[in-house]
Amino acid sequence: MTENAQSSAGAVSGVEIVLDHVSKTYPGQKTPAVADVSMTIPAGEIVVFVGPSGSGKTTTMRMINRLIEPTTGKITIGGKDALSLDANKLRQSIGYAIQQGGLFPHMTVAQNIAVVPKLLKWDRSRITARVTELLDLVGLDPDQFADRYPRQLSGGQQQRVGVARALAADPPVLLMDEPFGAVDPITRGLLQDELMQLQAEMRKTIVFVTHDFGEAVKLGDRIAVLGEQSRILQYDTPEAILANPANDTVAGFVGQGASLQQLNLMRVRDVDIEDRPTAHEGDSPAEFAARIDDWGVILDARDRPIRWTDRAHLDGAASLKNVGLPLGELVTTASTLQDALEAILAERNASTVVTGPRGRYAGVVTIETLIDAIRAMRDQHRGDPPIAEAGLVVNSTVEPVADVDSPSR
Ligand SMILES: Nc1ncnc2c1ncn2[C@@H]1O[C@H](COP(=O)(O)OP(=O)(O)OP(=O)(O)O)[C@@H](O)[C@H]1O
Fold it and tell me: Going by CA atoms, what residue is nearest to atom 12 of ligand 1?
């Protein structure tokens, strides 16, 4: 996460996780699936495990909540020895989200979210209030979604419910195993943005597994590139890994998109977000027109942007209810500059509207701002060795890692 993001962030609620010489050999296997992994996952950070299929990412992650018991080694969570705790209690204190949400099909959305609070014997009114709060937090209208069944939701909505369920009892640690692996790239980008947005407030410790290096760069405060048997090939910030891959195998993961990944490192909140006049649908069109130079944004009752409008649209309008035009693709303050650039290009506009927590209007980012940021980034990296010299180009000696970039298994 950038310095800027840190300064606008909430207090850390996560705790440190330490893996100390942890190994796992599955019954009947001769070689370990995970061999002697030691790493410290700092409190309040997102650490992404990335590596080829079968490298042991899931096994390593599941040993943290003891869905898989380590064969040897020690794990501490917030200073407590995880292996000496009651495994059920431990799991209730760790959020867990998986691909496609992993929802129980016979339970409603509300019942799915309430699973852990119920196990913890919260009273009914507290559970109902928490379910409503969480649905709101993950961008689903509680009135509309609480009583639906998972099959009545889109893939992206299921993933959101999966995240809400993982957050239900406000655990300090979240384990996320390819939680956005089964949705289309646009929804995936949105879900990633929302997770970043949530994390800026929550500052939990999140361990995130993915095959997708771009996703790792976008989400990770740190990335652990894992090789066979979960051997840690490199464990560092995305910036450091992009600039200096530890060896050819890591360079293979980073791939040829390395220079473009730089755009994935900067966030919309790191650049100048400009303001535009705003009004709610119940406000006076004439009064709004008087405040508009170029164009303005109409907000709904929850301050979420719904349409844009200029003075010509407002001329003679009786109300702001139906005037203006839809906004098209929006970005959030947590979106990357790459996302913002894509949104602007997709809409063929000179700017795109930015939303903050819970989809509230935050301002606009313009193409000029993006171009300035890209120039500054280029100037900053002018002294760096060319990409090829830095070893960022996949060369023929690198083992093929065919599925590393595929969005799902
Ligand atoms: N229950 C099991 N019994 C035996 N071997 C297993 C079991 N689960 C996983 N393995 C093996 O352990 C190794 C690591 O698997 P794991 O699922 O942790 O890898 P991964 O990196 O998460 O892979 P993917 O990205 O494909 O999910 C693989 O060789 C796998 O076949």
Answer: 33
- The ligand 1 site (C-beta within 6 Å) comprises 26, 29, 33, 51, 53-59, 211, 409
DSSP readout, 303-316? S-EEEEE-HHHHTT
pLDDT digits (tens, 9 = 90+) for 178-204: 988 877 777 788 888 888 888 988 899
Tell me which residue has its CA closest to atom 5 in ligand 1.
26
Taken in order 59, 64, 66, 67, the sign of the CA dihedral is negative
Taking the CA of residue 211 as reference, the ligand 1 atom at the shortest distance is 25
**For the chain, which residues make up each domain, given as ranges?**
3-259, 270-376
Q: Does the reported pTM lie above 0.80?
A: no
- Please give the ipTM for the structure prediction: 0.96
Beta strands in 138-259 (DSSP E): 173-177, 205-210, 222-226, 232-236
Cα distance between the two ends of the chain: 27
For domain 270-376, give the CATH number: 3.10.580.10
- The pLDDT of 357-361, averaged and rounded, is 90
CATH number belonging to domain 3-259: 3.40.50.300
Measured from the Cα of 59, ligand 1's closest atom is 18
Average pLDDT score over the chain: 84
pLDDT score of 178 = 92
